[in-house]
Write a structure and sequence with these properties.
The chain is an all-alpha fold. The protein is built from four helices and no strands. The two termini are 15 Å apart.
Length: 153
C-alpha cells in the first residue's frame, strides 16, 4: 500500500504512529516554549504587543505542521487500537487520511526547518556562499529522490 515498501499491517502502522506521536510531542514542546516566551515579556516593555504578535505568528505557522500531525496520530491510533479495544472495525479511510496528514505535516516541518536554516545562515555567511549552499542542498535532495525512485522501480 505504501510507496516506501510498508504494508498496511499493524506493525507498520504502529511504527508510523510512534513517529507521529514523537513528532507531536516535539512540536508541543516548541509550542509550550513559545507560549512561555510570551508570558516572560515584562508588562512594562513598550514593545510587548509587537513581541507577542511576532511569537503568535510563528505559533500559527507551527500549527501547519502540528495540527495535521496530531490528527494523523489520532486516526492511526484508532486504526490500530479500535478493534482490539472495542471490537469495532475502523473505517477504511482512516489509514489513507492518517498517512496523508502525516505526509503533509512532515513536508510542512521540512519547509519550516529549511526557512529557519536559511534565516540563520543568511545572518552568518555571505549571500553568495548561502546561495551556493542552497543549490547544493537542492541538488542533493533531487539526487536522493532519484535514487529512492530508481530503487523502487
Amino acid at each position: 500500500m505504501f510507496a516506501a515498501g510498508l504494508q498496511n499491517t499493524t506493525s507498520d502502522l504502529l511504527a508510523i504512529l510512534g513517529i507521529a506521536i514523537a513528532l507531536s510531542a516535539y512540536l508541543s514542546g516548541i509550542r509550550l516554549y513559545a507560549i512561555q516566551k510570551i508570558a516572560d515579556i515584562p508588562d512594562n516593555d513598550p514593545q510587548k504587543e509587537d513581541k507577542k504578535r511576532k511569537i503568535q505568528v510563528k505559533l500559527a505557522w507551527l500549527t501547519l505542521a502540528d495540527a495535521p500531525m496530531v490528527f494523523s496520530a489520532f486516526l492511526l491510533g484508532l486504526t490500530v487500537l479500535l478493534y482490539p479495544v472495542t471490537g469495532m472495525t475502523p473505517f477504511r479511510w482512516f489509514v489513507p487520511l492518517g498517512m496523508g496528514l502525516f505526509l503533509f505535516a512532515g513536508v510542512a516541518m521540512v519547509v519550516q526547518h529549511a526557512i529557519a536554516w536559511y534565516k540563520t545562515l543568511s545572518e552568518l555567511i555571505d549571500q553568495v556562499a548561502l546561495n551556493i549552499t542552497l543549490v547544493m542542498l537542492i541538488v542533493a535532495g533531487v539526487l536522493w529522490w532519484i535514487f529512492l525512485y530508481v530503487e523502487q522501480h
